[in-house]
């Protein structure tokens, strides 16, 4: 039985500690997620790295010393040159960024040319150097590069040169564009497919749900490499590199949408029977308004987190396709294409710097994964 | 003065005008059990099976029973949150023609849902954590087309004040509130659109006992202030006795007894009601041990496979052969309606002797 004393306590009781204001009380979902993510230093650091990588992709023309086509045949397989900032002469140390030029040795037995950095000959290098012309962001015509040799004909290969004497650093920077954007665009397409099909599946249910789920199971049961090979083989040889690029993106996202669709469906099903959705229905909201106002905001953060984890998978898929020679092809520059060019015994034995694009892949995939893990943890700031 | 006596006075005041507000006739909510790829129907879960009752304007009707007896489903069927599979539900507005809720079209249903509201059990899951409370409470005002723009904010602030919260809280999010305060927000949302009927679905079950008392008191105050009618779904008999004018007892999807709170508690006519009442804890040490505890054998009846005859007979200590074969109908016995063959002859123990 309820005690009489309890009943006589005033109905307007909750006021005791109301005077203390906390910023948490006014914080919405995204603010809470941001605070929670902010406590995860690894995720924050990875997020900064991801941001830098995308900035590199956007400003690739400016950051790369040369264009991806620029070559100096004399310097085929030239090793990386270290960048130094000071030169010593009779007056002492002087600020002069430079690399050291090469001297060429020819092996009398094999007639193979080897490059040795020449400590005597300095190639002056300057920041904001004039080089090849390009359009910054596709609009502003300019010829300024962040770093370049003062004399454009001088060698400057910070990551070494490939078999045609092209700068590996420049090509890696230019490859960032294709490799990082194929992840974004591919995941974007998967996301559209995943949200529409997963949403339909979870919202309508019944036969539609069964059909979509069986299609997903079928797609997921196909071994990916043979499927890619089959689809990639169907791309006409006459297509331009740009068309091939989009075709590959579509192929990747045709498989990538399945897991996202599952996730969206699961969220839809779980949320549909939440009391607050029922309450919204009783409040007179239509189904579309409920989806927009209650359902989507409730799972959007989870979707963003899984998208962050899906991008590196796409990047790796593109790399794998290009590496086995059925994805992108030269003259398109992507990390996968660059690695494909490195897959011969000579590169492994004498020009290991050709694998530096692989390091770019590892760094970007790892930072994306750490960021995605952090986002998943932060995505639901209300759980305990 | 005891609570029961208090309620007796209030009841006699309100029962002068016995106008029905919600009439339920033969309500059925059955869920099919499907099996296999082809979704072959192999059985029915009879969550609610042929129940009838009337909620009168101005009263508080309690709906009690064990978990799984269909009381929550009944409450939800009244607003068509779950679709009834049979029967008739009629809502009678104070000024207008009765609306058949089961066949109501979109606009009619919206009108019913504006006049008849619901307070949910769990204040954590019934408030969207991603919206500030102002938006949660104002949602009904906006989408039922009652108010617009700044007017919504004024009315929400007013509602907050009426449920005992400060109007400045309007921009806070639900996580900034305690369980009791959240339930106040849920009540404010239900009442914001100025309804005349409220279904309280275990509205205090998830709260601490001390907070329960505050919320019950608030509900009672608001009932007078807004001239409300309550259907109070619950399993806590102490709460039911405290707040309800009449009580309906459900067992396995069926109504077994309905009548005025005082007479149900003092002289239960159904063996199941007796068993429920004997389970009420008695805080007074002087009466401890005096009452006989009726221990029910076995499990709650499985609503997908109901026993024959009276669904309660496997657990009933008065059951005879007749109970196994013949289903008892609800019939008037004294002040109550009872579904038991032996309602006239059994002498059952209530809690009235000590509560009076």
From TrEMBL, chain A:
Residues in ABC transmembrane type-1 domain copies: 176-372
Subcellular location: Cell membrane
Main location (coarse class): membrane
CDD domains in the cross-refs: TM_PBP2
Cited InterPro entries: MetI-like (IPR000515), MetI-like_sf (IPR035906), OppC_N (IPR025966)
Transmembrane segments: 42-64, 178-203, 215-236, 242-260, 295-315, 321-339, 351-371
Record keyword Transport present: yes
Record key words, sorted: Membrane, Transmembrane, Transmembrane helix, Transport
Topology of the protein relative to the lipid bilayer: Multi-pass membrane protein
A Pfam family the protein falls into: OppC_N
Family stated for the protein in its record: Belongs to the binding-protein-dependent transport system permease family.
Name by which UniProt lists this protein: Peptide ABC transporter permease
The organism of origin for this protein: Devosia nitrariae
From TrEMBL, chain B:
Pfam families with a match to the protein in the record: ABC_tran, oligo_HPY
Cell location: Cell inner membrane
SUPFAM superfamilies cross-referenced by the UniProt entry: P-loop containing nucleoside triphosphate hydrolases (SSF52540)
GO terms, molecular function: ATP binding
Domain ABC transporter: 32-277
Domain of life: Bacteria
Annotated membrane topology: Peripheral membrane protein
Key words of the record: ATP-binding, Nucleotide-binding, Transport
Family stated for the protein in its record: Belongs to the ABC transporter superfamily.
Official protein name in the record: ABC transporter ATP-binding protein
Phylogenetic placement of the source organism: Bacteria, Pseudomonadati, Pseudomonadota, Alphaproteobacteria, Hyphomicrobiales
């Amino acid at each position: 039985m309820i005690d009489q004393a309890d009943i006589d306590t005033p109905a307007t009781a909750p006021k005791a500690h109301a005077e203390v204001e906390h910023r948490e009380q006014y914080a919405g979902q995204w603010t809470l997620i941001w605070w929670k993510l902010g406590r995860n230093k690894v995720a924050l650091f990875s997020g900064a790295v991801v941001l830098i990588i995308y900035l590199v992709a956007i400003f690739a023309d400016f950051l790369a010393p040369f264009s991806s086509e620029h070559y100096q045949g004399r310097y085929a397989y030239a090793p990386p040159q270290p960048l130094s900032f000071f030169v010593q002469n009779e007056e002492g140390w002087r600020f002069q960024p430079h690399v050291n030029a090469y001297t060429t040795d020819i092996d009398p037995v094999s007639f193979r040319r080897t490059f040795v950095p020449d400590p005597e000959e300095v190639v002056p290098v300057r920041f904001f150097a004039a080089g090849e012309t390009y359009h910054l962001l596709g609009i502003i015509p300019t010829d300024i590069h962040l770093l370049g040799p003062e004399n454009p004909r001088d060698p400057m290969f910070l990551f070494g040169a490939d078999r045609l004497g092209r700068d590996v650093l420049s090509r890696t920077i230019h490859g960032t564009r294709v490799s990082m954007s194929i992840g974004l665009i591919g995941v974007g397409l998967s996301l559209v497919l995943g949200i529409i099909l997963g949403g339909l599946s979870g919202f309508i249910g019944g036969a539609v749900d069964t059909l979509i789920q069986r299609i997903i199971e079928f797609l997921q049961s196909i071994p990916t490499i043979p499927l890619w090979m089959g689809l990639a083989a169907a791309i006409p040889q006459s297509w331009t590199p740009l068309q091939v690029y989009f075709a590959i993106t579509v192929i990747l996202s045709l498989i990538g949408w399945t897991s996202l669709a599952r996730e969206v469906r699961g969220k839809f099903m779980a949320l549909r029977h939440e009391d607050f959705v029922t309450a919204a229905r009783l409040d007179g909201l239509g189904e579309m308004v409920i989806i927009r106002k209650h359902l989507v905001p409730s799972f959007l953060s989870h979707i963003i987190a899984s998208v962050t984890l899906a991008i590196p998978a796409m990047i790796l898929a593109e790399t794998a396709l290009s590496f086995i020679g059925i994805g992108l092809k030269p003259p398109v520059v992507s990390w996968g294409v660059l690695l494909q060019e490195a897959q011969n015994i000579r590169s492994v034995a004498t020009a290991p710097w050709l694998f530096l694009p692989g390091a770019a892949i590892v760094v970007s995939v790892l930072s994306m994964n750490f960021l995605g893990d952090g986002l998943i943890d932060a995505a639901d700031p209300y759980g305990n | 003065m005891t609570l029961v006596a208090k309620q007796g006075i209030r009841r006699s005041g309100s029962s002068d005008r016995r106008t029905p507000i919600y009439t339920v006739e033969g309500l059925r909510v059955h869920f099919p059990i499907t099996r296999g790829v082809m979704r072959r129907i192999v059985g029915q879960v009879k969550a609610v099976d042929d129940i009838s009752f009337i909620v009168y304007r101005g009263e508080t009707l309690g709906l009690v029973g064990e978990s799984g007896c269909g009381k929550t489903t009944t409450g939800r069927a009244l607003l068509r949150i779950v679709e009834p599979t049979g029967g008739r539900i009629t809502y009678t507005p104070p000024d207008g023609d009765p609306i058949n809720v089961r066949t109501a079209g979109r606009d009619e249903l919206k009108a019913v849902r504006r006049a008849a509201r619901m307070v949910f059990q769990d204040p954590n899951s019934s408030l969207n954590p991603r919206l500030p409370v102002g938006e949660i409470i104002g949602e009904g005002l906006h989408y039922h087309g009652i108010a617009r723009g700044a007017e919504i904010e004024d009315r929400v602030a007013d509602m907050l004040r009426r449920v005992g919260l400060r109007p400045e809280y309007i921009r806070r999010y639900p996580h900034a509130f305690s369980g009791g305060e959240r339930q106040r927000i849920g009540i404010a949302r239900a009442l914001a659109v100025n309804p005349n009927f409220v279904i309280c679905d275990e509205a205090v079950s998830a709260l601490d006992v001390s907070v329960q008392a505050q919320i019950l008191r608030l509900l009672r105050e608001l009932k007078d202030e807004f001239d409300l009618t309550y259907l109070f779904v619950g399993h806590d008999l102490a709460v039911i006795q405290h707040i309800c004018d009449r009580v309906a007892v459900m067992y396995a999807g069926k109504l077994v007894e309905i009548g005025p709170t005082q007479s149900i508690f003092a002289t239960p006519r159904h063996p199941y009601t007796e068993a429920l009442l004997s389970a009420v804890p008695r805080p007074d040490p002087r009466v401890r041990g005096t009452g006989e505890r009726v221990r029910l054998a076995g499990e709650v009846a499985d609503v997908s496979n109901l026993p024959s005859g009276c669904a309660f007979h496997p657990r009933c200590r008065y059951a005879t052969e007749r109970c196994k074969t013949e289903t008892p109908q609800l019939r008037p016995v004294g002040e109550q309606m009872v579904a038991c063959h032996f309602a006239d002859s059994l002498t059952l123990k209530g809690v009235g002797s000590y509560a009076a």
